[in-house]
Amino acid sequence: MPGLTIGDTLPDLEVQTTHGNIKLHEYCSNANFTIIFSHPGDFTPVCTTELGAMAVYADKFEQRGVKLLGFSCDDVQSHQEWIKDIEAYNKNKPVNYPIAADPSREIIKKLNMVEPTADGNTAPATPSRALHIVGPDKKIKVSFLYPASTGRNMDEVLRVLDSLDMASKHKIATPANWKPGDSVVISPDVSSDEAKQSFTQGYDSVELPSNKDYLRFTHVA
């Protein structure tokens, strides 16, 4: 098994953060989605830009009912000092979300946020650049993993959140390169009769060599 992944239930851990102690299930329960993201280390360049970007996008996340929780193995005092750098880099945009500490490096293992090592994992565990999107049911809906050299794209995170939200309300999926306002596809488990009843705005079927009516595009609000 690859560890905690899509469909798994988030462990109900209690973590120490810059906003005090937080129980993960309680924290996730009153949000549409919760983004839990790890960074390799405080006072590092890519991580500084990433956590700054999270702060810049905080209003957009809040509009979607999304909460944020950062993570690394540095302690809370280190986080508090580092936040000053993050805010200075982002022209004093405040970091209002909590950043959790894990000096024992045990929590990142339980959250499947450990950077693979080339020496058989004999070195101390290091946080990967991982991001889990957790639903109010405490289950992992999306899991991203980037190498330390590549910063995350916040626009892509927003796009995925919008896709998850739309799919939770309608029997649809979002096709490749979808963005809000584009057509979506009707789920393959929706019959033609059900599609006509459920998607009264209509839909367009793509004619395919297989003659199978499964690629059906529509618009939903």
UniProtKB/TrEMBL annotation:
Keywords: Antioxidant, Oxidoreductase, Peroxidase, Redox-active center. Residues 4-166 form the Thioredoxin domain. It comes from the Eukaryota. GO terms for cellular component: cytosol; mitochondrion. One of its GO terms (molecular function) is thioredoxin-dependent peroxiredoxin activity. The keyword Zinc-finger does not apply. InterPro entries: AhpC/TSA (IPR000866), Peroxiredoxin_AhpC-typ (IPR024706), Peroxiredoxin_C (IPR019479), PRX_1cys (IPR045020), Thioredoxin-like_sf (IPR036249), Thioredoxin_domain (IPR013766). The active site is at C47. The keyword Cell membrane does not apply. Its EC number is 1.11.1.24. It catalyses: a hydroperoxide + [thioredoxin]-dithiol = an alcohol + [thioredoxin]-disulfide + H2O. Pfam families: 1-cysPrx_C (PF10417), AhpC-TSA (PF00578). Thiol-specific peroxidase that catalyzes the reduction of hydrogen peroxide and organic hydroperoxides to water and alcohols, respectively. Seems to contribute to the inhibition of germination during stress. Belongs to the peroxiredoxin family. Prx6 subfamily. This is Peroxiredoxin. It comes from Dorcoceras hygrometricum.
